[in-house]
Amino acid sequence: MTKAEIRGIWITTTDSRVLHSKYFIGEAITFLADVGFDAIFPVVWNKAATLYPSQVMLQTFGVQIDPQYVGRDPLAEVIVEARRAGLKIIPWFEYGFASSYNLNGGRLLAHKPQWAARDYQGNLLKKNGFEWLNALDPEVQEFMINLILEVVQNYDIDGIQGDDRLPALPSEGGYDSKTVERYRQQFGKNPPKNPKDRQWLHWRADILTDFLARLYQEVKAVNSNLLVSMAPNIYDWALQEYLQDSKAWLERGLVDIIHPLIYRRDFKSYKAVVDRLVNEQFTKETLSKLAPGILIKSGSYQISPDHLMQAIEYNRTCGILGEVFFFYEGLRENNNALAQVLHNGPYG
Predict the structure, then answer these.
(1) How far is residue 234's CA from residue 244's CA, in Å, rounded to a whole number?
(2) pTM, 2 dp
(3) 124 has which bridge partners?
């Protein structure tokens, strides 16, 4: 199996009960294996807590695990079932550098106010409801690397995954005193007021790319076979809005497999994004790393079986050998309709 010949699914805590018990985990993984999936991406970091007992979190924030899982280790339970079914397991650090969602920074920034990201006005950085840690701060980066390495060192996994929040920072950020001082040392002036100023944008994006380079190196030092998987937003929108320079990540060889979130709700729009990425971002050498993220369910939205089949067929036409779906519960709607289509077609 090449790296991107992957039939993957995200397992969430939102709108899903899979991780609520060992029984549900076993049932879900048996179901996925039967349909023909070969990789799962279970969330292990969101809402300022882990889904495994974390010494890093305990020492830094006094919270060992998400309170609803006290007494359990959902990650360990998922691994047991995934191994039994022969599925790859790649833990997903969903919240990345986000501190909270509509909680004014929540637990993390209550403990570490100096870790807050700031906009030009000096306010706590907030975008689309999420408040942010300062991803450009070496201390915050160190915390994130330690959190990820803890999983890499202690669990039998096949890789780790960042997403549209890891590594990322809304481009309105970077105006905290530490980052401003760093910029001033280098250029002898304050950062531009315009957060989209090209040089300032790239300077901050490069700091995040360097963070990813370090993360990649540290993960591989533990086990060179582990996959470093990233699911960023779409280039180059993601660079302009979240400082995610996934083109540079590919050029520098900092990802083994990449899942741009092509969350389009009709096939024509999906195809247009795939065409652009294949022509503008990927080369013959890097195309083998591409397995797009496809939205199959969100709130009341449910992808149609026809749209799903068209997307997968188009991927193969373009030489794209796999995809990852958001998210598990979408397979179970309408008496497992999408799962049936996949099992009777490309995944069977």
Answers:
(1) 9
(2) 0.96
(3) 118
